[in-house]
Amino acid sequence: MISFNRFEFDLGVRYVRAKRRNSFISFISLVSMLGIALGVAALIIVISVMNGFQTELRSRMLAATSHVSLKGFDGPLTAWRELAATLASQKEVAALAPYVEGEGMWVNGDVQKPSLVRGIDAAAESQVAEVHKHMKVGELANLKAGEWGVVLGIDLARNLGVRVGEKVSLIVSQGTITPAGSIPRVKSFRVVGLFEIGWIEADSRVALIQIEDAQRLYQLGDTVTGVRAKLNDLLEAPAFAARMAPILPTGYAISDWTQANANFFKAVQLEKRVMYIILTLIVAVAAFNLVSTLVMVVTDKQSDIAILRTLGARPSSIMQIFVVQGAIIGVIGTLIGLVLGLLVAFNLDAVVGTIERLFNVTFIDKTVYLITQLPSKVLAADVWTIVLMSLVMSFIATLYPSWRASRVNPAEALRYE
Description:
Elements: H1 6-17, H2 23-64, E1 68-72, H3 80-88, E2 93-108, E3 111-120, H4 122-128, E4 135-138, E5 149-153, H5 154-160, E6 167-178, E7 181-195, H6 200-205, E8 206-210, H7 211-217, E9 226-231, H8 237-244, E10 252-256, H9 257-260, H10 262-300, H11 302-310, H12 315-346, H13 348-359, H14 380-406, H15 410-414
Parallel strand pairs: 3-8, 5-7
Antiparallel strand pairs: 1-9, 1-10, 2-3, 2-6, 2-9, 4-7, 5-8, 6-7
Helix pairs in contact: 1-12, 2-10, 2-12, 2-14, 10-12, 10-14, 12-14
């Protein structure tokens, strides 16, 4: 292990601060430092955005869905009250809500839009999901049995061209049997509220109606499509679902929020790892620019090295001098990148907004992406990992040039001086 004395450290610092005869070497040192800084900053910003994207998307998905959902394999739940009581007896469960779910086609004049139609009990639904916190107009309590009201996602309402208080028709496949065959059923609803979660899949494809109205519309009687549960800790959902699956009667299935969106979250995690590797290579390239910088410094300082050797400096001391010099460049570059990365990550909304206004561009198109804003979440573990990785790379990059400096032959170096 390398141990530094005050002599080696002071001389290494002086070499960093000194104005060199060769300005090109100074320029390469500056480029190496800035390269490390930009690499570290880019890593912190991108990883923070990926963390924020994953967290924000998860929270918005859970605003429209639930932690755990119980459904039947072959049809609606008939004994759903008994099943709900079984779930409610578990200590992990905080709230339950039955629901009816089906597909439908909303019609307003010549405009037709398909959607997922979910029948809910407004009071129970507010306990398991957070749609009520994202209401733009009206409230879930406006959904009352027999009044045939509907709460639409704001994008769905915009596409249909309807406002609160206006009528809109719903066509469902569960038809009326006539001598001519089955005819799709059409029911008129009055818009009583609009919600905006910020997740395009919910805002443009979900319509909420009262659960009793949904049972009548889809001819389910007293049955429901399923029961949704909110847990005290959403991260326990996979383990809870796995534990409850063997307990449930045959013909029933329980799933958690990670299964409902498993492929997407796996893709986000894979993308985060790939981006981490790619940006780490940028830091690596910048760090190993130190190799060429220090090799040139060693060549430029051969006469100084020879004099130090003739004065009694050991090869290990010479090596330590240039390790200190390279390490200081790496540390300064890393600290600059750390400060820059944290400043941008913590003020990402302002930075992105300024860039969008200056260049008239849009980074997050809600018709393409699942969320409408660029989020950021800085995790201390990620920041420390990036900083340590940069410092280790910078230190490793100093070893070969420093070893080469320690091998300089004083006689050869001073021959032509």
